Structures are given as C-alpha cells and as structure tokens.
Amino acid sequence: MGLDDIARKPHERLTAHLAGDMARVNALIRERMASEHAPRIPEVTAHLVEAGGKRLRPMLTLAAARLCGYEGEDHIRLAATVEFIHTATLLHDDVVDASAQRRGRPTANLLWDNKSSVLVGDYLFSRSFQLMVETGSLRVLDILSRASATIAEGEVLQLTASQDLRTDEAVYLKVIRGKTAALFSAATEVGGVIAGAPEAQIRALATYGDALGMAFQIVDDLLDYDGSSSVIGKDVGDDFRDRKLTLPVIKAVALASAEEMAFWRRVIEKGDQRDGDFGRALAIMDRHGTLEATRQDALGWAAKAKAALARLPSHELGEMLADLAGYVVARVS
Amino acid sequence: MGLDDIARKPHERLTAHLAGDMARVNALIRERMASEHAPRIPEVTAHLVEAGGKRLRPMLTLAAARLCGYEGEDHIRLAATVEFIHTATLLHDDVVDASAQRRGRPTANLLWDNKSSVLVGDYLFSRSFQLMVETGSLRVLDILSRASATIAEGEVLQLTASQDLRTDEAVYLKVIRGKTAALFSAATEVGGVIAGAPEAQIRALATYGDALGMAFQIVDDLLDYDGSSSVIGKDVGDDFRDRKLTLPVIKAVALASAEEMAFWRRVIEKGDQRDGDFGRALAIMDRHGTLEATRQDALGWAAKAKAALARLPSHELGEMLADLAGYVVARVS
Questions:
Q1: Which of B133, B134, B158, B176 to mutate to probe the A interface, most A CBs <10 Å?
Q2: Cβ-proximal residues to A105 (8 Å cutoff; 6+ apart), any chain
Q3: What is the pLDDT of residues B6-40, one digit of tens each?
Q4: For the stretch A311-321, what's the b/e string if a residue is b when 16 or more beta carbons lie within 10 angstroms of its beta carbon?
Q5: Which of A160, A188, B255, B310 can pair with A205 through a Cys bridge, CB separation 3.0 to 4.6 Å?
Q6: Which of A228-232, B144-148, B228-232 is predicted most confidently?
Q7: Is pLDDT above 50 for A76?
Q8: Which H or E run includes B106?
Q9: Pairing state between β B101-102 and A105-106
Q10: ipTM above 0.85, yes or no
C-alpha cells in the first residue's frame, strides 16, 4: 500500500477498489432511471443521483459480495437496487421535512414540487423492486422487502415520536434503525446471500451493516449538538430548532431535574425557543455528560461492527470495512 | 338464480359469491396493516381501508384465481397485496392532488397531515411487497413490480401532461393505463398465474383486466362532463376546474377552430376561468360530438374486456365478470 492509499479516507479506498463494479452500477442506475414517457423522472432523479453522494450503500453491497468471493452479475443489480431505495426515501424525506437543501444543493421538492418528489420517489421504489426481482432470489426479496417496511415504519414512528418527551432510548433506536441501519444491514446481507456465503458469514455481514448504520446515525445526531470537530457541512443546532428528540436530548431528559424538565417542555414540546436556549441546552447536557454518553454509544456500535468482521474470510475488503467503521466514529473521537 | 340475484349489481353478486374469500382478505389486511411500533399507521390505514370501498381490485384477483380452479391460499395474499398497492396510491394521490375528500369522507392528508399520507403510503407499499414475496412466485413478483412502475410512471406523466394542450390521445391512454388499468390487469393476471392456468388463459385475464380498467377510467372522465345519469357522488366539472386534460377535452382540442383553441388555452393552459365557461366547454364538445366519441371508446374497451372472457373456461364467475364490464359502461349507456 503506497502513501497515497494510506492518506485516503476509507470510503475513498473502497471506491478505488470497487471502481470497476461501481462504474457498472452507475451505468445501470442511469439506464433504469430513464423513462421513455415521463422526462420529469430522469430530471428529478439525476438531480439527486448525480449530486455526488458517496454511494456508501451500494458500495457496501459490492464489498460484501466480493469479500465472499462472488464472481457473478447480480451484485451490480442489488447495489443499484439499494441506491434506488435510498434515493426514493431521500425524495420522500425532503417532502416530509419540507427541506430546502440537501448535499448543499436545492432539494427536488423546491426545484420542482412536492408532487414530483412523491411520485418520482414511488417510481424509483418500483424500479428498485423490479431490479431485485431480476436476481431471481426469493431470499434477497425477503430481506429487502422487510428492510423497506422497517424503513417506512421507522419514519412514521419518528413523525409521531418527535416533540414527545416520553420518547425513550428504545424508541430512538427503532427510529434510527428504520432511518439508517435497516438499509445498511440489508445492503451488506444481500451481498453475502447472492454470493452463497455460509449462514454465519451472512449473519456477520448483516450485523456489521446494522451496527455501522447505528454508529453512523448516532454520530450524525451527536454532531448536531457538538459540531466543533465536524467535517460535514451540517449546521449545529438544526435538530434542536426542529425540536427533534435525538439521543443526547433523550439522555438529558431522562436525568432532568424539575427545572430542566420545564425547560425541555418549553423548547421541545411547546416549541417556544428564545435566544440563548441552545446554549442552555448544551450546558444541561454537559452537566449530565449526555454528549459523552452518546459518543460512547456510537463507539460501542462501531466496535460491534468491527467485531462482526472477524467472522468473515480474511480479505483486504474486510480491512477497508473495518477502517470504515473507525472512520464513521472518527468524526467524534 | 333468484330475483334477488338478478336485481343485484354485478359487483354485489361477485361480492356475495366470493364472500368467504373476501372475509379472509379483510382479516389479512387488518393483520398486516398493524404496526406494533407506530400506531399512526393503522389509524391512517383504517380510515381508508374501512371507508367502504367496493374492494373491486382484490375481488378481480379472487375471481380470476377461482375461475381458473385455484384451491390454494396465495390468492388471499395477492388480493390483499393488490388492495394495499391501491390504498398506497390513494394516499399519495391525495397529497399530489391536495384533495380534501375521498368517498365522501375527509382525506387522510386533511385529518392528519401530508407527511403521514406519504409515509404510511410507503409503509403499505412495502407491506404489499412483503405479502407478494410470501407467495414465492417470481412470475407474480415480476408482474406486480412492473405494474407498480407503470402506475408511478403514469402518475408522473399525468403531472407533466396536465394543463398542456399538446397532450394527445396516446399520452392520455398511457396516463389512464398507469392510473387505473395497470393494477386491474395485474390483479386478474396474477390470479391466473397463481392458479397455474394455461398461458392463453393468463393472457386473456390480463387483457380483460386492462380493458376493464380502461373502460372504467374513461367512463369516470366522461361523467365529469356528462353526469346527468351519474350514480356516483362526484361533482360534474371538477376536472374542468382542475384544468385536467381528459379524453372529451383532448378530442375537442384536436378538432378546435382557432377561436375554440383560444378558449381552451385560456381556461386550461392559463387557468383563467369565468362564469359560463363550463357551459361553453360543453357546447363546444357537443358541437364536435366528443362526449359521444368518448362514450364509444368506453364501450369499445368494455366489449374488448367481454371478448377476452370467451377464451376462459366456462364458469359462473366468468358471467359475473362479463356483467361487470357491462355495468362499468352502463353508467353512460
């Protein structure tokens, strides 16, 4: 490994290692997002798909399949499937959150309208479904259909749980499993399934993806309160202003004094936020050590992800996946 | 057949004939729309599913399977699948159309919010997908995933084609195939597939469903301009006010004089509608006979549906399906 390789971030090393496969995934994505009859579809989709996301989820599928020695064609289809599901959920999320920006660009619902985002999301979801049917693997279909239901259920749960101070850590974990970990986990699991890997390896891949996704989302939620070391462009305090109940706040609410509880009720439940409230929230969390406790939870999930990799064949892709788990939490280490 | 039976409408006779199967479909729908974690899901879904729709689409699946002699269990799953897909599209349609009422009741997006309608629709779509995977039939999955893509594509096409006077009959037919006929056709086709019917019969069932759906939607669009004999509760003139380009207007635009074209541009493209414009639109359509021509098209599709049934085994369900095709156009006969 040269110095250039060492200096690269793990997802860049994965990208380089899987460049041939990923080029084919991108070609398939472009082919399948086309619509002869409705040019609005590729317009909206290209806006998102070409926006320069890291293609993390399809990369997980490719890496899992290759790590298990797969030499066929279906991992390309499954990687495109996973990216289509992800893109469809982004389109619908932006409608639900009424977002104006994603990845530093205006969202599709702003450029076109909510209608286009809803319907093009439905189209991509249908196309993802067609792609996975083409693999002819009922087990893959079972995994991905279950993941889709978990994603949708998590999103609805988030909708009803937000601004409700009774939301506990168990509910939070269900929400982020739906929001992030379910698709990560399905992405790695189907890679193993399509490769015909032994059951223990398939379970290890599913565990890796799940734990990686949990770590990823907890870090994301933590950085919204403690973004000093953040390498992402997200604004600190967005979740607070949106009154989203994420782990650092949930932990603080569980330990709140009567006076603090009154504060959380006002700013989260009632949405009555004043100058200095974000600073006061940080001070309360600092007093109870909930940012540090959240950080420890993220590190725990990353460690679980790495541990799962030990049950897989020795392979340079395994090392890259381990580095990826470390990289995800490095943002808060 | 007693007098009571003769007096009944065809869909009521089908309902009575398939009552045992349909009770099991309803039980399965209730079971699968439940969500342990997100009670909002069954709330929203029950509002729609229990709203007393005619369950026409699942009935088509049950009838097709039984007509082909099916004695298994999977037609119940597939009928529930089809109803879930239909309900998911209704939820998303109401968001896209910003509707306030459906089947005489407030829509889910009005009672809850657009967010719930988008996400619960996604949940139902995922659940439908899980249900069909349980049948273990890749052919069924192929048919239903293709139908889902056609539905979504048709909806996007409708979005971009509406208010555009260049929309011709070919585009209109694609839109209504997506909007209505694709799911009707898939509903009947999978009934035949699951029953292991010969290819010619499966094709006949698909053709019946498609033609029935086309007739159904054309009649619906016609009644919006000529609802004197209407038995439905829909208000005449809704499509005109919403500037939707449906078949009676498309035919009138194709035959328009320069003066009429200016009228259509003003009321449809520009949306500048004044008192008396709906009456003027009716007079123009009457002059060119486009309501009658639209009626003839609907009758043609109903005849095609009936003709397809001739290629199926002789069965009392076949007679009921033929009556159903007649009933659909009886509203304009």
A1: B133
A2: A47, A51
A3: 557 888 889 899 999 999 999 999 888 877 667 77
A4: ebeeeebbebb
A5: A188
A6: B144-148
A7: yes
A8: strand B105-106
A9: unpaired
A10: yes
d(Cα A283, Cα A253) in Å, to the nearest integer? Answer: 13
Nearest to A212 by CA among A300, A313, A316, A315: A300
State residue A106 phi and psi, 5-degree precision.
-60, 145
Chain B residues with CB within 8 Å of chain A CB:
35, 37-41, 89, 92, 95-96, 114-116, 118-120, 122-123, 125-127, 129-130, 133, 136, 138, 141-142, 145-146, 148-149, 151-153, 155-157, 159-160, 171, 174
Nearest CA among B176, B118, B164 for reference residue B264: B164
Say which DSSP state A267 is in.
I
Percent of chain A with pLDDT over 90: 68
**Quick check: B190 pLDDT over 90?**
yes
DSSP result, B153-210: HHHHHHHHHTT-TT--HHHHHHHHIIIIIHHHHHHHHHHHHHTT--HHHHHHHHHHHH
Chosen from B119, B130, B163, B190 to mutate, greatest number of chain A CBs within 10 A: B119
**Do A301 and A273 contact (CB within 8 A), yes or no?**
no
Residue bearing tokens 């499954």: A78
Q: Flag if B153 and A96 touch (Cβ within 8 Å).
A: no
Measured in whole angstroms, how far is the alpha carbon of residue A303 from the centre of its chain?
Answer: 18
User: Could you read off the pLDDT of A166-216 as tens digits, one per residue?
Assistant: 999 999 999 999 999 999 999 999 999 999 999 999 999 999 999 999 999
pLDDT for the residue A326:
94
The whole-model pTM stands at: 0.90
What is residue B115's predicted lDDT score, i.e. its pLDDT? 81
Q: Contacts of residue B153 in chain A, CB cutoff 8 Å? A: 35, 37-38, 41, 123
Q: How confident is the model at residue A324 (pLDDT cuts 50, 70, 90)?
A: very high
Cβ separation of A125 and B125 shorter than 8 Å?
yes
Question: What's the CA dihedral at B285, B290, B291, B295 to 10 degrees?
Answer: 180
Contact B123 A153 (CB under 8 A): yes
Chain B contact set for A125 (CB, 8 A)? 122, 125, 148, 152
Of A221, A245, A209, nearest to A297 (Cα)? A221
pLDDT (mean) for B157-181: 91
pLDDT at B135: 96
